[in-house]
Specification:
heterodimer, A: 357 residues, alpha/beta, 6-stranded mixed sheet, globular, B: alpha/beta, Rossmann fold
């Protein structure tokens, strides 16, 4: 932890960034929040690898950089946060030109509520996670579980960052690598990756991939017909929390919050007459199917939607299962590169001949 | 198949090609089944999938989307964008337990009144063979 905080402090003090976005304990304690800091003292309690994601950092990066950041910003990010930031950059909601992404190995994340409970019970989830990572494992504390999205995440290391911080299988060391220019300015050597790290990560990815395939197969089994879809989303209260938490859903005015869906009372009456009964609030399944149409090509599988759901709906599993098929249509890998074209932003004249004649 | 079942098809037609093709079918007095409810759009590329999904959830038995032939779009490339959106929509429908073959995207020009009438006949036949939308009468959507 000391080495991590020193890296952040050096970035500030050597003038390589003007501000840092880094997790630290919430003002009232008990949980963690993202904080924008520009002084070394504010880093004293920084917790850059805490196993919790209170907010998808890509959303914060959008607030801080859309239209161009006025200063150089260093942002501590996990793999899914980098991938979401890359998608948002292509959607012109994040400007990465003055951002130094500091990608840390993700040590798994708990639901924020579970994380807070662990802290309240006197545990130190970060210390536990770091010790486990040093020994080559990414595992929750006894009796707790990581979020479903993390359990099926096959990309634990952050790619496409200016600086990378490796922890898993590092035997307790902090492996800092990345741009030669920045490392030179910091006066840091490029860390050599111990052989054990590669094997640890391969084992982790294999385990996660197996979990992913199992969980997504279960979802697909449940979604065989419309009754299955109702079973998945029947409890939805259309609070829009999943959309609000989703890093990809960036529209300032979502159609579901617009006048299009402010139906006059007589509209409900006509639906009632047609169907004989009407589920209220209405348009819940429509909401999820529409969101799938609008954003699933860019879904990075971070699971912020599921964590935000008050009714525990498996939003992330459904979106990941469907999103993978949508992405496969265009061989698109969301979050891989700012140079991969968004499927809905481009077209080829000669394609999809089976869709239209 | 349900007794007395008549398919209901919602058709979203682009103003410049398929809507004019439908118009030509009418002024040419070509017969096609009266099961189609036409909604005129400026461009097939202007159709948000939300309206297609809404029609299906409301019990429409099929949704037809008509645009200009590739290269003929009044707005250069709206129909190509529509094709990607519809490809994604159909994949999502397939993955969530719907029948994607209830959604058709076809290119029909302003001069193809005959093709419009024939396509409507084919679609009504195909949807009739599928039977009613299983979501008809569902209250939970």
């Amino acid at each position: 932890m000391a080495a991590l905080r020193r890296l952040l402090a050096d970035l500030l003090e050597k003038g390589l960034v003007d501000a840092l976005l880094v997790p630290r304990p919430a003002p009232g304690g008990g949980s963690l929040v993202q904080a924008l800091v520009n002084r070394r003292e504010a880093l004293a309690d920084a917790d850059p690898v805490a196993p919790v994601m209170p907010v998808q950092t890509a959303r914060i990066l959008s607030a801080l950089t859309a239209g161009g950041a006025p200063y150089r910003l260093g942002a501590v990010v996990k793999s899914c946060e980098v991938r979401a930031a890359i998608e948002l950059a292509k959607l012109k909601q994040v400007d990465l030109s003055r951002v130094v992404l500091i990608g840390v190995d993700c040590l798994g994340t708990y639901e924020p509520r579970e994380y807070a409970a662990l802290v309240a019970a006197g545990q130190d989830p970060t210390a536990y996670a770091l010790a486990a990572a040093g020994a080559g494992m990414v595992a929750p504390v006894e009796g707790a579980a990581f979020r479903d999205a993390c359990r099926m995440c096959e990309q634990p290391t952050a790619q496409g960052c200016t600086l990378r911080v490796g922890l898993v299988g590092a035997g307790g060391a902090v492996l800092i690598s990345g741009s030669d220019e920045l490392l030179g300015a910091l006066g840091y050597p490029t860390a050599d990756e111990p052989a054990a790290r590669e094997a640890c990560l391969a084992a982790l990815v294999a385990e996660r991939t197996a979990t992913r395939d199992r969980m997504l197969a279960e979802v697909r089994e449940r979604l065989r017909d419309a009754a299955g879809l109702l079973a998945e989303f029947g409890k939805c209260i259309r609070c829009h929390n999943c959309m609000t938490a989703c890093p990809i859903c960036y529209c300032r005015e979502c159609i579901f919050k617009s006048a299009t869906f402010a139906h006059p009372p007589a509209t409900y009456q006509s639906w009632l007459q047609r169907h004989g009964a009407l589920r209220m609030p209405a348009d819940t399944v429509l909401f999820h199917l529409t969101r799938l149409n609008h954003m699933s090509a860019s879904c990075v599988g971070c699971g912020a939607c599921s964590s935000a759901c008050p009714n525990g709906l498996p939003v992330a599993q459904v979106f990941r299962a469907v999103g993978r098929e949508v992405q496969a249509l265009f061989d698109y890998v969301p979050g891989r590169s700012v140079y991969d074209e968004l499927p809905l932003a481009v077209f080829r004249e000669d394609e999809l001949g089976d869709v239209a004649r | 198949m349900a007794e007395g079942y008549e398919p209901r098809i919602v058709a979203f037609l682009c103003n410049w090609c398929t809507y004019a093709g439908a118009d030509l079918a009418g002024t040419s007095r070509l017969q096609y089944p009266p099961n189609v409810r036409i909604i005129r759009l400026m461009c097939s590329g202007a159709l948000d999938p939300v309206y297609v999904v809404k029609a299906l959830l409301e019990g429409a038995d099929g949704v037809f989307i008509g645009g200009c032939h590739p290269g003929d779009c009044h707005y250069q490339n709206g129909n190509f964008k529509a094709r990607r959106r519809v490809a994604i929509l159909k994949k999502i429908l397939e993955q969530t337990g719907f029948d994607p073959e209830r959604v058709w995207l076809r290119w029909i020009s302003a001069s193809e009144g005959r093709l419009f009438a024939d396509t409507m006949t084919q679609m009504v036949d195909a949807i009739r063979a599928k039977g009613p939308n299983p979501l008809r009468g569902q209250w939970g959507m």
